[in-house]
Structure formats: structure tokens, C-alpha cells
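can u do me a favor
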């Protein structure tokens, strides 16, 4: 049984076809003239016929060699494409990245980060999806998405979580609100104020409820919302003061509302989550490192 064709022999054949002599081909490939002759001999032994004959110091291709040349050219071109593809994959410059995150997170802090990542990698495509937290966990755990951003703490057994960014709670008010002229608000300032809250049952909401209890300030919840965007929309209409994640609320600020710091520190932490059933692929790892760097700069 014949040995498989040696790619180096095909490269020698192709170079001789282009250069016309074994000496020139050897110089092009960076090997000795006897070395290129051996490679050509290996190929001729494999195909079973002579590929060149000599005429006035040059190697003239046979009719069979001319027919073979086109296929060799295609083969070596395919090898080059495979090499380039492998290089792009190694450098995380090719592929599809599937991300799941809350709507407000995608449209807010993640928007510029994803845009910069794509500018650096023109051949990468990104799929952005949003789901309820429970569904998002399952999607990432079962590898239907490469990664996600989920509010911490996170205890799902199928997820690996790395803290990526944190933010304080702020107060969002209409500019027409009597407290809008203040520089910051404390829990005591919110006594008898109508409130707009989100995330009932979530860790950050539990912290808010606890802060009011510890300060002996009763909560007057006028409106329960499911997203930061909705909470800010109704705060702007002066239906109450929204207590929300500052990082997410910044994108909704306009001339009709203000963001004031809450003196009581209530943190919102987000984690970069991947499936614990398999290591991150190279593209996901590159995106994680990109996010980590950008969010670190954001926190400075």
C-alpha cells in the first residue's frame, strides 16, 4: 500500500512548476537542491509516472504534470485556508458568540463593550438574547448560550460564575419632585415618600427592605416594576422615587429626571456565567477577558 502523499512533496512540485528549475525552487523553499529532488522523487514514486523532463537546464512539466498542477494548486490553497482558519480560531477572530443577559444590561453597560469587541474582530458574529433569570441560568448551564450576565449571588450547580461588575443603588426622581434639588438621599429622607421598586424576592430587593426596617422607616410602595427601564419611566412621570441599580439607570437619564446617590450602600453585583459542564471556548474566554478589562476601567 502506498504511503499518503506528502504535503511537502506537493509544495516542491508546485514550486518547481512556478520557478522552472530545482535550484530556484530549492532556494524559494529554503532547502537544498538534492532535498527538493528527493521530494519530487517521492511524489513521482507515488503517482507512478515522471512529472518533468530536462531541456536546456530547465525542468519541463509533462502533460500529466500540467493536469496534476491545477489540483495540487487547489489542495495547497485549501491547506493555507485551514492554516488561516486555525490561526483565526486560535486568536479568537472567527466564530459566533451567543450571549444572554437582562435587557437593561445589554442596552446599557454591555452595549459599548460588545461594540468594541466586534470592531476588534470583524469576522466574529454575536447573538444577544434576553430571558428571565431562571430561564437564562438553564440556557447557559445547558450550553444553549456560550455565556451570560446574571445578578449575584449565583448558586446554580450547572454554572461557573465570575464577578464582573458591581454598582450602587441610586434614587431616580422627576425634576419636578420636591427632593430633586438634593445632592443625595438617605433612607430617612424617603420617609413618607411614594416608592417605585423592582425585583421583588431578589437579593437586592431583600437588602432594600432590610435597610428600611433597620431605619424604622415604613415603605410606601406605589408601584412594583419588573425592569429598571419601567421604574425610570414612571419615576420621570413623578409617580414616586425609584430605587434602582445605578449602572443600569444611567442610560435612561434625560432632562426630565435626575439620579441621586443613596447614602445607604446597597450593592448590585453581576457575574459572568458559563456552563460548568465544559471549559470556555477560546472566543468566549477572549470576550470574558475583554469584559473584565472594560468593567475594571469602569469601576476605577
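np, heres the sequence
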Amino acid at each position: 500500500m502506498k504511503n499518503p502523499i506528502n504535503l511537502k512533496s506537493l509544495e516542491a512540485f508546485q514550486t518547481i512548476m512556478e520557478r522552472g528549475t530545482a535550484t530556484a525552487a530549492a532556494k524559494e523553499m529554503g532547502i537544498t537542491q538534492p532535498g527538493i529532488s528527493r521530494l519530487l522523487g517521492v511524489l513521482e514514486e507515488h503517482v507512478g509516472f515522471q512529472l518533468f523532463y530536462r531541456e536546456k537546464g530547465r525542468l519541463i512539466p509533462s502533460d500529466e504534470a500540467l493536469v496534476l498542477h491545477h489540483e495540487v494548486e487547489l489542495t495547497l490553497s485549501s491547506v493555507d485556508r485551514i492554516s488561516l482558519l486555525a490561526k483565526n480560531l486560535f486568536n479568537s477572530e472567527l466564530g459566533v458568540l451567543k450571549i444572554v443577559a437582562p435587557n437593561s444590561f445589554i442596552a446599557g453597560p454591555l452595549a459599548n463593550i460588545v461594540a468594541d469587541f466586534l470592531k476588534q474582530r470583524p469576522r466574529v458574529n454575536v447573538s444577544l438574547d434576553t430571558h428571565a433569570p431562571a430561564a437564562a441560568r438553564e440556557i447557559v448551564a445547558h450550553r444553549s448560550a456560550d455565556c451570560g450576565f446574571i445578578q449575584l449571588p449565583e448558586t446554580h450547580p450547572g454554572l461557573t460564575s465570575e464577578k464582573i461588575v458591581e454598582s450602587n443603588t441610586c434614587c431616580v426622581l422627576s425634576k419636578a419632585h420636591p427632593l430633586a434639588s438634593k445632592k443625595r438621599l438617605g433612607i430617612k429622607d424617603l420617609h413618607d415618600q411614594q416608592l417605585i421598586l423592582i425585583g421583588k424576592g431578589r437579593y437586592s430587593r431583600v437588602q432594600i427592605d432590610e435597610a428600611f426596617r433597620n431605619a424604622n422607616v415604613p415603605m410606601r410602595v406605589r408601584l412594583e416594576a419588573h425592569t429598571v427601564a419601567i421604574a425610570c419611566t414612571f419615576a420621570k412621570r413623578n409617580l414616586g422615587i425609584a430605587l434602582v441599580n445605578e449602572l443600569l439607570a444611567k442610560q435612561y437619564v434625560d432632562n426630565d429626571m435626575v439620579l441621586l446617590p443613596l447614602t445607604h450602600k446597597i450593592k448590585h453585583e453581576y457575574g459572568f456565567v458559563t456552563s460548568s459542564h465544559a471549559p470556555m471556548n477560546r472566543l468566549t474566554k477572549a470576550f470574558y477577558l475583554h469584559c473584565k478589562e472594560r468593567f475594571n476601567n469602569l469601576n476605577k
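The radius of gyration is 32 Å. hope that helps!!
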